Every structure is written in structure tokens, then in C-alpha cells.
Amino acid sequence: MLSIDELKSINFFEHLDEKELKLLLSISRKRTFSQGEILFYEKDKAQHLTIVLEGVVKIYKIDPKNNEIVLHRFRPKSLVAEMAVFEGISYPASAAFESEGSVLEIDFEKFKEYFLANTDVAFALFKSLTQKIKYLDNVIALNVVLDSTARVAKYICENDDALKMKNNQLAQYLHMTPETLSRILKKFTKLGFVEKADSSYKIVNKEALTILFE
Amino acid sequence: MLSIDELKSINFFEHLDEKELKLLLSISRKRTFSQGEILFYEKDKAQHLTIVLEGVVKIYKIDPKNNEIVLHRFRPKSLVAEMAVFEGISYPASAAFESEGSVLEIDFEKFKEYFLANTDVAFALFKSLTQKIKYLDNVIALNVVLDSTARVAKYICENDDALKMKNNQLAQYLHMTPETLSRILKKFTKLGFVEKADSSYKIVNKEALTILFE
DNA sequence: AAAAAGAGTTGACTTATATCAATAAAGATA
DNA sequence: TATCTTTATTGATATAAGTCAACTCTTTTT
Predict the structure, then answer these.
(1) Min CA distance, A112 vs chain B (Å)?
(2) Degrees, nearest 5: CA angle B153-B159-B162
(3) Count of Cβ atoms closer than 10 Å to residue B22 Cβ
(4) Strand D at less than 7 A from CB of B186
(5) What 3-state class would DSSP assign to B202?
(6) Among all strands, which nt has the closest C1' to A199 (CA)?
(7) Are A80 and A93 in contact (CB under 8 A)?
(8) Which of A37, A85, B103, B213 could form a disulfide with A33 if both were Cys (CB 3.0 to 4.6 A apart)?
(9) Which pLDDT score, from 0 to 100, does residue A117 have?
(10) CB B6 within 8 A of CB B76
(11) What angle do CA B53, B59, B64 make, to 5 degrees?
(12) Rounded distance between C-alpha atoms, residue B34 and residue B98, angstroms
């Protein structure tokens, strides 16, 4: 089911030798999920180091109005919620598969004992942690610091695929209603910052948009 | 100016021996700041590993309306913005001293070379990084997910000193105006969740408050 | 091509929070 | 204690974004 080659393809473990990979294999297991299935719930106790192998995992919270707020989307092969495992606390948000997929679950206590002293592994974990901080900083910059207009401007400038998404979905990514997004894009069109070409928008004045969020 | 004992008192380095501490000393320097002085600006290139030795450092962003949004307050002896240094990027926010204080600046390239392979140091850094993630998660939970009322409820339940602060300052911590905070506390008083005793509030029904944010 | 379904847009209205201005209370200073 | 200064509260109003409902445009299905 889970092969050594599969482990090796995970960048955290690329420098491990055969013996180490075998040891790792013995403390790991693979779990598959279908679309929509829950990987873990907020408040569950974090037990395993979890790495997405296939599919997309979303991390989300539910606000008091029952809106789902997606904080992060993880693609293969990233570590999910390692903070909770390291800190020995419960998950601060829930996680669900947005597509079919699978994860690798590693027994954390044993991992710590056998692998954390390995410089390469430690380095890869540093990288993963710092990137997560970078990502969270960005979430804060986007959602706490900016208003809706600036949020749209920033997101469409920094994410090429943003305007290719369904309006609906983009609105959800940006934590606003489709109506609000539609109105903002209309405003940008009037200002000549974007243009509507065959049913999807294109940026025509990136400089102007940039001014809105900087 | 900067002594070995001072280095040793920093938990990241408590396991280092004399020789290592001397080496560390040679790649470090101490800088002192007066109240209000800037440690770094958003967009500055991150060059040194920075540890607060004395005083309080606030990390903040400026929103489009020129409000200062404080994301974090660091007390001795914590690492500041290590993410930017590790990632080799510019600081995602600005930092200023809220009191008099000092920091230790460590040449990161040399630190990486000499110390990062040290298991104890690496472990302490893990700890620092995961705690930062925990903190940022909390900022998001507080500011993105919750509305003002829930935010006040959560903050006063989880921070004993919250109601001892000046209303003004608490409002700033919670990213809302003093007026809004005042109105929310008045509402809580009416509901019997808090009580005003000689010019400061006290929680009388923590369970009720908890329900508001969970 | 017509019909149906889904997605996007628009207008009217509501709500949460900010803003501004006036007052009240608390704390500091003389 | 009286006066000054700062901080907190209150009311009125403004603003940004959400909600709801109608409508229009796409896309898909038949």
C-alpha cells in the first residue's frame, strides 16, 4: 500500500537512506479519503504528523453565523497542522478534503525520537514552519488589515488564476459575498482597472490596483 | 557590553557550552532603543536573527485608513520575525519599541552555519516557530472569524489583565473603537455577564461569555 | 434551437461598526 | 477642595458590507 519510493518522493525525507526510510515506513500509514470527507475537526487532539499525498485539503473555521472561513488549502506534499502536533494541543481549525485524496500519518512520538535530530529533516521542517507563518501573515494582511476593495485588488494582482475562477468561488476565497465582489469588479471596470472580455475579467491597469492595497 | 552570561540566560542557548557561547558572542551585538524607536520597517530586508532582551516590541501594520494594527507584542526573551530571516524575505510588518529596551542581533548566515545543526538550538527554534503559528492562528480566530461582541467576550475571558487595561488601550488591542468597546461592555453589564466595580469591570458570568465565542 | 439550470448582476434594505460631537466621569495638579 | 486634563460614555449620523429578491446573462441539457 505505502511504498518506500512514495516516502522518498516527499521532500522532507529525500535525504534519508534506505534503512531510515524503512524505519519511517514502520511508523507510518496511508489513509485515503473521498471528496468532502473530514480529515480532522477543530478541537480534536492532534496525534499524528500528517502529510497530504494526493488531493486538496482545506483548513477552515466556522464563524458565529455559520459561514465557513477557509484559512488554508494544502496540496501534495505538504505538512498539515504540524504546529498542533508539536505543541501537543488540539487542532485550532477543521480540515476536510475538497477532492479525493490521501494522507500519510506518522506516529509523532516515534518520529521525534528517531528523526528530529536529523539535520536535513529538521531543515525541511523549519522550511515548512516558516512558510506557514508567511502564509498566515498573508491571511492577516489580507483579511484583518484590508477592506473588501483592497482585498480584491491585492488578490487579483497576486494570483493569476483568481480571475479564472468562478466569481462565486473567488468571493468565498476572499471572505465576502458574491454580490460585494461583483460590485467591486464593476467599480474597477468603471475606473478602467479591469476589463470584461468574453465573460471573464482581465487586469488592464495593475499599477492602479497596486496603489489600492499598498 | 554583551556578556556570555546574558547569552546563557536566553533559553535558546542554555545548552551551549562556553566555547560555543564565545563563538555566538563573536557573531552577535546588542543594540539599545528608547521608547517609540523603530526596530525595523515593513519591507526592510531581514538581515539578523533578532531577540528581544529588554522592553516590549510591538509588530504592527498600517491599514489604508492609517490605523495602526498591532499583530504581536514581544517581551524578553523572544525571537522576533525569525520567519523573514529564514525565508530571506523582507519583513512583513514593522516593529517598534513600546518601552525602552534592547535586542540581540545575530548574524544569521554564520548562525546557520555554526548552530543550526545543534539539536537543542534547533528544538528551541521549533518551539519558537510553532508558538508563533499558534499566536497567529489566534489572531485570525479573533479578528477574522469573530465579530466585535464575540471578540470582546473571548479576549476578556482569556486574558486576565484585559479588564485592568485602560478602555482605550483594550479597544486598540481588539481592533475596534473605544466607543464600540464601551457599548459592548454596557450590553454585557445589562445582560449580567460583567459588573462595574469602582471604575473597572469584572466578569461575573464566564460561562455565558464563553457561549458567545464558541 | 429551445428549455432548463446555474451563475452573475442589480437594486432596495438591513446591520454592524466607525465617526463625530457632546457630555460625564475619573484622575491629576494646583 | 477646586480646577484642569484625560478618559469614558452616550447619542446621532455615516459607511461598508451583508441580505434578500428580482432579473439577466451563461452554460448545459434535451
Answers:
(1) 10
(2) 80
(3) 12
(4) yes
(5) strand
(6) D26
(7) no
(8) A37
(9) 86
(10) no
(11) 165
(12) 9
CB A79: neighbour CB atoms within 10 A? 23
pLDDT reading at A192 higher than 80 = yes
| Nucleotides in chain D near protein beta carbons (<7 Å) | 7-12, 16-21, 25-27
Distance, in Å, from the CA atom of B147 to the CA atom of A71, rounded to the nearest integer, reads: 17
Q: In the prediction, which pLDDT does B123 show? A: 86
Measured distance CA(B35)–CA(B22) in Å, rounded: 30
Q: What is the mean pLDDT of chain B?
A: 93
Average pLDDT, chain A: 93
% chain A with pLDDT above 90: 80
Kindly report whether the peptide bond that precedes residue B77 is cis, defined as omega within 30 degrees of 0.
yes
Report if CB B184 to strand D is under 7 Å: no
Q: For CA atoms A65, A67, A68, A72, give the dihedral sign.
A: negative
**Of A153, A193, A187, nearest in space to A170 by CA:** A153
Taking Cα atoms as reference points, which of B137, B111, B142, B119 lies closest to residue B212? B142
Cβ–Cβ of A83/B134 closer than 8 Å? yes
Whose C1' is closest to the CA of B178: which nucleotide?
D8
Helices (H) and strands (E) in chain A, counts: 9, 10
**A185 to chain B, closest Cα gap in Å:** 19
